[in-house]
């Protein structure tokens, strides 16, 4: 018969043997760039909103992809309604308080009962598990009212104009070029800043002018300059491309009337290589 000391030693050895197997069974959270950000593009904390509203999800420094797509530095949106952040090492629940957008959607039509609510965005990986580090928006508090209306467009100033500096229609340009933005009769202010007679630039590449009553999309064809930038170095593939500037208000919505440049076409050429003799 084993003495108590032998039994304790056997138990300790068993734990050492089991621990690595248990550790291997744990699925680590998918890594992602620490500067990745999700946010509501058209909704602020304390807003009074109508019962039926279209929410727009902003994304920065990562790629939005459908669920089940396993790709580095990517994920899909989840909307938490009146719910705390779920356990970070498990799949995000799917219920009325945890809405999944597994097709890679960046907006959703939401219907809420009158009264106060909380909303928060949380990014999930291919298995609906939050990343490492977790990427989530701030919790915003809204009040739903039958009397509320969707926000209207911000007025632009008379004779305001946005234009490209030194880039006429039909230009032949290199693949890497710096595009400079000009603006007359209005001022430049960062996104989120509510100030009459101001806005921030958006560069539309190979796409038509955006819808006027909605926030401008945020993707490789719709570049936002929400810090108030007035130039941008871009890289384009060889061939023909269209470029257009659109001024957006504090919520990324075009003004009324809209302030947008002429839609120009440029031809991108590869750099010439020197011949070797």
From TrEMBL:
It holds the Pfam family DUF4399. InterPro entries: DUF4399. Residues 56-144, 179-268 form the DUF4399 domain. Residues 1-25 form the signal peptide. Keywords: Signal. This is DUF4399 domain-containing protein.
